[in-house]
């Protein structure tokens, strides 16, 4: 027997275990380990959570394994080592499997892990210290909330589109709120950077954005391209600059929300890396309009776009959550009452639900300094880290095609992407028999969810 007790996921069928060695000597058991197959690409000291694509792959393969009658008499173990970072990512994956395949709530999915030794919380992608901790449960609750809102559909998720467009040379963009908020890195003035790495220009983005139903671009960083390059292609452009690594002012927040609430289509939002400032403002919109808890939203956006929301921006979202949710309540109440409010009162009421934020940030002195004065060079470091991680400048470009629906989503099957990533088996062979689970050749679900 192993030294550490396993977490029972499905009685007498599925278990999760972390130990020095896998449960090799248990009869009629099958173990698999994905520690070296599904690997997080860090920006600095961050180590997770594993993104939505890896989450999906894990769930698809485990679902196939459980339903395979050949192994119906086996106890299946998801094994991970005692490495704290690997352990947290493995626990998150098993929690996500319970939500997506077993139809359990986030809390129910986390309950089997509560008796086990404490897990290492996730941290941000910044280069300094991090006092804020993103827990596994935050990530699970973020996934659960996104499913409830219709932002993620396990049965329709297009893994090929996600993996294509998240690469720097293919646009480096992700849906955060499908059809409404897309996060992307700053467009380049030229088609390649100083290192010869392929990057996208406004002319590359514009036709894609139009096909996705996006009507405007919001730039949060310094000017690196001419806004007119988007405007000439029929995409509106707004500038809402604030310092790299800092938190937005009250006026920036109000203007961003005004733009989002009045534009005819969705918004494509970017700063330099499309992570910190971008994720923060999108988070405020999600809190106001969807009652998305701030801590859970941070978990969700990092599943969609790893590295999002950094440093003091994390505490900032949590601290302003209650006030922003009040804005949402007032906004919806006013929207319902507009038909009976006199025209003279409508202008007055436009600022209602937008009271000044009076928050006390619980940060370290260094984080508080950054929240005001920014973190010079942070975005450049993040961009460089992502390019280094992906290190595939010769990846073939994909011609942009307008999907038949005209509303492509990275979380649904409406995708112009035809090429597929290389197949790979994410499960190791069984310690009992030479068993090879289903390969990664296809991610299309053909069977109903395991109940």
TrEMBL record:
Any one Pfam family here would be DSPn
Q: Which Gene3D superfamilies match?
A: Protein tyrosine phosphatase superfamily
What class does this enzyme belong to in the EC scheme? Answer: hydrolase
Sequence ranges assigned to domain Tyrosine-protein phosphatase in this UniProt record:
172-330
Q: Where is this region: Disordered?
A: 383-427, 432-451
The highest taxon in the source lineage is Eukaryota
Q: Ligase: is it a keyword of this entry? A: no
InterPro entries linked: CDC14_C, DSPn, Prot-tyrosine_phosphatase-like, PTP, Tyr_Pase_AS, Tyr_Pase_cat, Tyr_Pase_dom, TYR_PHOSPHATASE_DUAL_dom
Q: Write the Enzyme Commission number(s) for this entry.
A: 3.1.3.48
Q: Kindly indicate whether the keyword Hydrolase belongs to this entry.
A: yes
Annotated GO molecular function terms are:
protein tyrosine phosphatase activity
| Domain Tyrosine specific protein phosphatases, chain residue ranges per copy | 254-316
**What keywords would UniProt list here?**
Hydrolase, Protein phosphatase
Mind telling me which PROSITE patterns this protein's record contains? Answer: TYR_PHOSPHATASE_1, TYR_PHOSPHATASE_2, TYR_PHOSPHATASE_DUAL
Q: Which residues fall in a compositionally biased region of kind Polar residues?
A: 386-395, 407-427, 436-451
Family per UniProt? Belongs to the protein-tyrosine phosphatase family. Non-receptor class CDC14 subfamily.
This chain belongs to the protein called protein-tyrosine-phosphatase
What species does this protein belong to?
A: Stentor coeruleus
């Amino acid at each position: 027997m192993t030294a550490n007790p396993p977490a029972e996921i499905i009685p007498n069928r599925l278990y999760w275990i972390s130990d020095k060695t896998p449960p090799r000597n248990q009869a009629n058991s099958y173990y698999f380990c994905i520690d070296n197959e599904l690997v997080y690409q860090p920006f600095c000291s961050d180590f997770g959570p594993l993104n939505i694509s890896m989450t999906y792959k894990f769930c698809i393969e485990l679902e196939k394994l459980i339903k395979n009658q050949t192994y119906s008499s086996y106890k299946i173990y998801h094994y991970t080592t005692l490495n704290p970072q690997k352990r947290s990512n493995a626990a998150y994956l098993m929690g996500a499997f319970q939500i997506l395949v077993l139809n359990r709530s986030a809390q129910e999915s986390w309950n089997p892990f509560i008796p086990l030794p404490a897990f290492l919380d996730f941290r941000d992608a910044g280069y300094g210290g991090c006092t804020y901790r993103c827990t596994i449960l935050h990530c699970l609750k973020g996934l659960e909330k996104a499913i409830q809102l219709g932002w993620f559909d396990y049965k329709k998720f297009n893994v090929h589109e996600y993996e294509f467009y998240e690469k720097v040379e293919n646009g480096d963009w992700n849906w955060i709120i499908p059809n409404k908020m897309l996060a992307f890195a700053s467009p380049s003035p030229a088609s390649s950077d100083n290192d010869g790495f392929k990057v996208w220009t406004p002319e590359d983005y514009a036709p894609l954005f139009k096909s996705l139903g996006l009507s405007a671009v919001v730039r949060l960083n310094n000017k690196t391209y001419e806004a007119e390059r988007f405007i000439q292609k029929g995409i509106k452009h707004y500038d809402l600059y604030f310092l790299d690594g800092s938190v937005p002012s009250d006026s920036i927040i109000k203007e961003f929300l005004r733009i989002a609430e009045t534009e005819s289509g969705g918004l494509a939002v970017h700063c330099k890396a499309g992570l910190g400032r971008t994720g923060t403002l999108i988070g405020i919109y999600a809190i106001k309009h969807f009652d998305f808890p701030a801590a859970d939203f941070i978990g969700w956006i990092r599943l969609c776009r790893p590295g999002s929301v950094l440093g003091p921006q994390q505490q900032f979202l949590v601290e302003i959550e209650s006030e922003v949710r009040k804005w949402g309540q007032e906004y919806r109440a006013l929207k319902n009452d507009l038909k009976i409010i006199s025209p003279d009162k409508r202008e007055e009421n436009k600022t209602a639900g937008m009271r000044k934020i009076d928050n006390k940030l619980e940060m370290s002195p260094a984080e508080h300094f950054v929240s005001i004065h920014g973190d010079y060079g942070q975005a450049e470091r993040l961009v460089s880290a992502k390019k280094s991680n992906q290190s595939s400048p010769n990846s073939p470009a994909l011609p942009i095609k307008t999907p038949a629906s005209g509303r492509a989503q990275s979380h649904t099957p409406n995708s112009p992407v035809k090429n597929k990533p290389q197949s790979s088996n994410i499960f190791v062979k069984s310690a009992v028999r030479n068993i090879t689970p289903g390969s990664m050749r296809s991610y299309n679900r053909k069977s109903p969810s395991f109940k």
